[in-house]
């Protein structure tokens, strides 16, 4: 898992260094960093964990906060593609039924996006990629903590506020399900990015 994260971060950094300075004249070309936050809903039904099947069927809502970095490139007039790495943390994540509980902790997302410039300053896009979340599980007095791999898919809109600052709003669906168990996540995230 760590090697995948390091490789993705290195690729984003290399692309940023290799980009010609002239490319920054385009509104959505170049490296960026940012912060984001929003709403998160976890929906589980008997998810498999290191303890085995966790007898829990419940939905839980919480807030989430995170940071991201990435690189975009306008490959054709009005067509933008990019890559992004991020880490997000739920604000209050533990939920359960008295017998069993689940505690999503941090999540790491590596994704690609493709978008269309509706106006020179407004990008509508779709996003897809890999997600990994650290999850604690309790059944009675037993506790485990393990990583779950999944995939994410979503879309949103990003708007340039100044030459260097943009704001975005997006929806994401992430599936961490394994075997017959269910572990889905829905998010609505708002973010602000600084573009170099």
Helix-strand blueprint:
Layout: H1 2-18, E1 30-45, E2 48-49, E3 52-53, E4 57-76, E5 79-90, E6 95-96, E7 100-119, E8 122-139, E9 142-160, E10 165-175, E11 182-195
Family: Belongs to the Omp25/RopB family.
Protein name: Outer membrane immunogenic protein
Keywords: Membrane, Signal
| Overall pLDDT metric | 88
- What is the ordering of alpha helices and beta strands? HEEEEEEEEEEE
What is the radius of gyration?
Answer: 18 Å
Uncertain ranges: 2-25
Number of helices: 1
Within the largest sheet, what's the order of strands?
Answer: 1-4-5-7-8-9-10-11
Reading off the top of the CATH hierarchy, the class is best stated as: Mainly Beta
Largest sheet: 8 strands, antiparallel, barrel
Instruction: Please state the overall shape, judged from the principal axes of the Cα atoms.
Output: elongated
